[in-house]
Amino acid sequence: MKRPLHKALILVFAISIICAAGCQEAEKPSEKKSRVIAARNMELEKQVADRDKQIDDLKAQYTVRLGLEQKKLADCRKQTADCKEQLKQGMEEKVNEVLTASIEESAKVHAENATLKAEIAELKAKLNQPAESEEPKEPEKKE
To answer: What is the pTM of this model?
Structure first.
C-alpha cells in the first residue's frame, strides 16, 4: 500500500511544480527591446501613412483621368451627332437639288412636247386642206 501512496504523492508534487512554473509572471521586456519595438512601430506607422497617401494620390489621378476620358467621350459623341446632322442636311439639299432639276426638266419637256403637238396638229391640218394657191387639178383625160 505504500506504493500507491508514494505514486500519488509524486504526482501531486509534479502538478504543483508545473502550476508554480506556469503561473510565474512573464518577464517584462528590457528598456532596449522596448525602444527597438517602439522605433519599429513608428517606422511601420510611417510606411502605412505613406501608402495611404500614395493610395489617395492614385485615386485622385484616376478621378482626373476618368473625368478627362468622359469629357473626350462626350465631345466625340457630340461631334458624331453633328456630323450625322450635317450629312443629313447635305443629303436633303442634294435630293432637293436633284428633285428641283428633275421638275424643271420635266416642265421643259412638257412645254416642248405641247409645242411639238401643236406643230404636228398644224401640219396635219395643212396636209388635209388644199392650199389656197393651188387649184384642184382635174384629172387629165387621155385620148
So the answer is: 0.43
